Amino acid sequence: MNNHKKAGRDDQMSKNACAWQPQLETAEQVRDKSFATGELPLEKGRYTLVWGAFCPWATPVAILLDLLHLDQVIGKSPVYALRHTGVDNDWFFGEKDSELDPLLQINRLSKSYQKTESAFTGRASVPALVDLKTGKVVNHSSAQLLSELSRQWKKFIPKDAPELFPVRLETQILQTNQQIITNLAQVSSQIEESATQEEYERLVDQYFDQLAVFEKQLEAQPYLLGRQLTLSDLLLFVQLVRFDVVYYYKNKLNKQPLSALPNLWHYARRLYHLQAFKQNTDFLAIKQHFYQGTQVVAGFSNVLPVGPDVSAWESR
Amino acid sequence: MNNHKKAGRDDQMSKNACAWQPQLETAEQVRDKSFATGELPLEKGRYTLVWGAFCPWATPVAILLDLLHLDQVIGKSPVYALRHTGVDNDWFFGEKDSELDPLLQINRLSKSYQKTESAFTGRASVPALVDLKTGKVVNHSSAQLLSELSRQWKKFIPKDAPELFPVRLETQILQTNQQIITNLAQVSSQIEESATQEEYERLVDQYFDQLAVFEKQLEAQPYLLGRQLTLSDLLLFVQLVRFDVVYYYKNKLNKQPLSALPNLWHYARRLYHLQAFKQNTDFLAIKQHFYQGTQVVAGFSNVLPVGPDVSAWESR
């Protein structure tokens, strides 16, 4: 997954400690360990995934656990969608400081990072796979978790579960993931930094051109890469779920609503109606995270838009 | 029209020098004169209406002129939709400082105000009816212009033109106008000043509750007050035209898009397809005005959203 090393590091979501790849600062302090190398044992009940429903990089991992029934062997520890007042580099496990994650028995994610590296000073990012035996973060790379959980945990995955990262599609999946990261996810972050009308419009074109490519791809096949659900679909789904609710609005990516791209809109809803996708999709958490940095709502720029109406997601 | 005296004075559009009623400051310096009292002569070719397609108070007057064929006897002098760099209290007649209005032969509106009152220091607001003989602003109240042009200029209005302000509907029209002003126009301004989630949501409810009332009214009748087009329709139309393009987005009034209110959406498009409405509707001018204070586009907060797609207005 070397071609992902750079992607996502410098985007806003990374600053927000929700990352595709760990930030350099934390990556140096907390080195990701691997199942593929045998460095991490494959053990039922040994790990929990710390994730947040707001995070487009942690959510695909949470979806993957449910899709592959790995939620039966790996725990899930969701963090609260908003920062706590005055704390901008950590995630808490509840709305109140005192609430503990039932598996980890800690109130904030940084404690797991500090168990791994006592001098930890980075931003505690999600996703983070934590070893329940030691309380340490053993991997905090969305890219690597998606790949390794798909391939290394096969003995715990039922035969009828989808194969999300088949070797024969690996190149295509990695290329498609990169398109999603570069032309959708990163653009939605970069656009808010655009200083001129021209730069803004160039980024809008980049974004909608990519949507048009995917719209075309989905004309004749049910999934991005054909007849098979893959990791790329997980990554695209979390982008589409955020589109009308956040990007269309907050990032002025409002050339068209998602419903104007019928193949993408039907595809997104089709995935949404799969249990693994729906139960890891929380529109309120997504809105809170992107519109409100902290729990303190001060002024119009932070108030949570009442819309758009997301009820259409419920119709098939 | 006494019940309109207060309305609109303290809203943001007034600050922007686009007003339903003149600001107190300019009203004291430039007293509005009346056709009803005979103070102003009814004379073909004597006046021009200074207006801007961006302004929801000047635009209904421009629509009225065309609807009643008064455009044959009163001129129209449109101002440029954007402020000129460094000038925030005046409107220019072109994109360049040097461009003159062909009727008035001036480059900026304040010159007409200064002819009326040489010590004029207020904000030059639109609409402004200017006497071409003297170059002076003789009336700059949208409320009064709509009323007086409907009623006092009858001898120039063809018999088959609509009666926009019939005496038998006067109370209803004034009440409805007040609803539009208080619950739609002012809310869209006030909402950006809301300091809390609760205040914001209260204003959203106020706005959408009013839309729901109008949606219901239009269920069984073609116009707001029945079978007859009135001034209230002109005022509501300019609000609806701005809804998806500005308010839905910039003012977080995004509970539903206009198309989710089918009666209002069909009504708005039906009016739009009348020549008098369409030729005074300029989506680009509206967007420029509300997103860009001046011609200098600096940073994301000022870039003009590429969307939403307004092509649906063209379909009947």
UniProtKB/TrEMBL annotation, chains A, B:
SUPFAM superfamilies: GST C-terminal domain-like. Keywords: Transferase. Signal peptide: none annotated. GO terms for molecular function: glutathione transferase activity. The keyword Transmembrane helix does not apply. Residues 166-300 form the GST C-terminal domain. It comes from the Bacteria. GO terms for cellular component: cytoplasm. Pfam families: GST_C_2. The keyword Transferase applies. This is Glutathione S-transferase domain protein.
